[in-house]
Design a protein that fits this description.
By secondary structure, the chain is of the alpha+beta class. Helix content is about 45%, strand content about 15%. The protein has 6 helices and 6 strands, in the order αβααβαββαββα. It has a 4-stranded mixed sheet, with helices on both faces. Strands 5-6 form a two-stranded antiparallel ribbon. A hairpin with a 2-residue loop joins β5 (about 160) and β6 (about 160-165).
Length: about 170
């Protein structure tokens, strides 16, 4: 992680990107993780271990957001709607920026953004949350809420390309 931190810092210094897009691991923080925790036993222990493993990444994400926003740059983060990542202590700076209006939280649904099952073609509902410093993104993405005009593919089981939940996690 330290090597990644140094690499990120060097890239920010040398490239100074106007917009930084972050997609951090969502598995330990999403709705399915709560199901594993609710099961107890080995499933819960595995999920708690994954969460502890992911905490330094959350801290790095928060640090990157603070740095970019502090340098008058833009950020864009994606995660599943209902993710508990934003409520973790490591993400407090990001949550505080949402509460004070520096960052915006946007809800959109994957089915309206083109997410669909590779075999059936049915759209994946996949409710998503975006956090950004770009007010224009709010105007654009808020329009992508499910209109209920179609049937959704259940994100369970597998299709010919692999596990549907894993496939739905890619952009």
């Amino acid at each position: 992680l330290r090597t990644g931190q140094r690499t990120m810092d060097l890239q920010f210094q040398s490239e100074d990107p106007y917009c930084t897009i972050v997609t951090h691991p969502c598995g330990p923080w999403g709705n399915w993780s709560r199901a594993a925790l609710g099961k107890g036993g080995a499933a819960a222990a595995t999920m708690l271990e994954a969460r502890e493993h992911d905490r330094p990444i959350l801290k790095l994400v928060a640090r990157a957001v603070e740095h970019r926003v502090g340098n008058s740059r833009r950020v864009f983060l994606e995660h599943p709607l209902g993710s508990e990542a934003i409520n973790q202590p490591e993400m407090k700076p990001v949550k505080d920026m949402i509460l004070n209006g520096t960052l915006f939280f946007i809800r959109a649904d994957g089915c309206m953004l083109g997410y669909c099952d590779a075999d059936t073609g049915n759209p994946n509902y996949k409710p998503m949350g975006f956090i950004t410093s770009m007010p224009v993104a709010v105007d654009i993405l808020e329009k992508y809420r499910c209109d209920r005009s179609h049937v959704h593919c259940e994100l369970e089981g597998s299709n010919s390309k692999g596990k549907r939940t894993r496939l739905a996690a890619s952009w």
